[in-house]
Amino acid sequence: MARAAAAPGVLISGLVSRTGPPAQIVDLWLEGAFELVVSPALLAELTGVIGRPKLAQAIPARTAQRLLEELAASAVLFDDPPPVPGATPDPKDDYLVALAVACGADVLVSGDRHLTGLSSTQPRVLSPRAFVDLLDPRGSR
């Protein structure tokens, strides 16, 4: 089974719009198609972003709370590894690469171009669409 770390933006996009690759990723995870890894830092960022007034209008509070509860119950929780300074062009994302490496993820899923453009990162960084295609190559979704 594939193991993936997903940037908070991917999960949030999956809640804002229930169509498209981010929503498919949330659904595939809930169906057990892959193992999602999280850390306290990732959960804190996700909680903070979901709580912003602009997103509170786009995501019903119950939906956001259900996702956070499901992440706490079903995602694989890893301790925050030390960040890898300079791993990404945006120092705020260094923790995502460190998490993906520390937990042995097969992929890091992100829609951020500065992450998907990294060529030497292990594990590889995939866009949400590329990750859905990897999990569901026949495109049955």
Question: CATH superfamily name?
Answer: 5'-nuclease
What form results from the Cα inertia axes? Answer: globular
Q: What would the average pLDDT be, to the nearest integer?
A: 88
User: Which parts are unreliable, with pLDDT below 50 for 5 consecutive residues or more?
Assistant: none
**What percentage of amino acids are in beta strands?**
5-15%
Order the strands across the largest sheet as they lie in space: 3-2-1-4-5
Relative helix content = 40-55%
Which architecture would the CATH scheme give at its second level? 3-Layer(aba) Sandwich
**For the terminal residues, how far apart are their CA atoms?**
19 Å
- Biggest β-sheet description: 5 strands, parallel
Q: Class in CATH?
A: Alpha Beta
Number of helices: 8
DSSP strand tally: 5
Number of domains: 1
Pairing-aware structural class of the strands and helices?
alpha/beta
The name CATH uses for the topology is: Rossmann fold
Instruction: Please trace the helix and strand order, writing H or E for each element.
Output: EHHEHHHEHEHEH
Radius of gyration equals 14 Å
Structure, described:
The chain has 141 residues and is of the alpha/beta class. The chain has a single domain (2-135), classed as Rossmann fold (3-Layer(aba) Sandwich), CATH 3.40.50.1010. Helices cover 50% and strands 13% of the residues. The chain is built from eight helices and five strands. The chain has helices spanning 8-16, 21-30, 40-50, 53-58, 61-74, 94-102, 113-116, 128-135; strands spanning 2-6, 34-38, 76-77, 107-109, 124-126. The protein has a five-stranded parallel beta sheet with strand order 3-2-1-4-5, sandwiched between helices. Strand 4 (107-109), helix 7 (113-116) and strand 5 (124-126) form a beta-alpha-beta unit. The longest helix is centred in the middle third of the chain and has 14 residues, at 61-74. The protein is globular. The two termini are 19 Å apart. The model has no long low-confidence stretch (mean pLDDT 88).
